[in-house]
User: Fold this.
Amino acid sequence: MQAQKTLLIYHRGRHGKDIEIEENTLESFERAIQEGALMVEFDVWTGLRVAHDPNDNALVPTLPEVLGRIDGRCAVNIEIKSPKALGPTVWVVNDVLARRIYTPDQIVFSAFHHKTAITMKRRFPELRIGVNNDGVLERPYIDWLASQGIDNLHLEWANIYMDIEAGCEMRTAVFENNMHIWVWTVNTRDIFDTVVAYGAEAVFTDNPPLFQ
Assistant:
């Protein structure tokens, strides 16, 4: 029952050798929607480039192009990789919200740069904002993030295993602050079952059909 409620987030769209589609392409996001994705995830760098790596010089789509192609047909998790992309991203998101192409519950922001995430929460208090972290956080920092309005903690899956072995102290602090745990990048059934049992409400995955 719990697994059926877990949100599957299409990591960088629907891609892979099995379908011969590259990640972070307009085609990958279109394919995700065709497969019934409720949410897709992608990274934004300087120049509003949607790509995983900062030095990706290939022809990549921009944030306005990606949001335009998706056109509100599913929710989006926009991970802001570059702090310099924050201002332009605010402008783009303000525009799509003002034109009602997306509703507030369809847009999630996240960032490894936690100051960026906090700034986005101040700009968009109505949106869900997550901080990305590859590590097991201590309660004082989790308490502080909650005091800044952060809604989600996005964790690499191995950190869940670490916290389980340590008595789930991080999970306790997160839940007692009414925050939520989303986990990346989950591509096997064993990991999926473990993180869902731990309390993850959503997982980012490169292989959604495995869990459908």
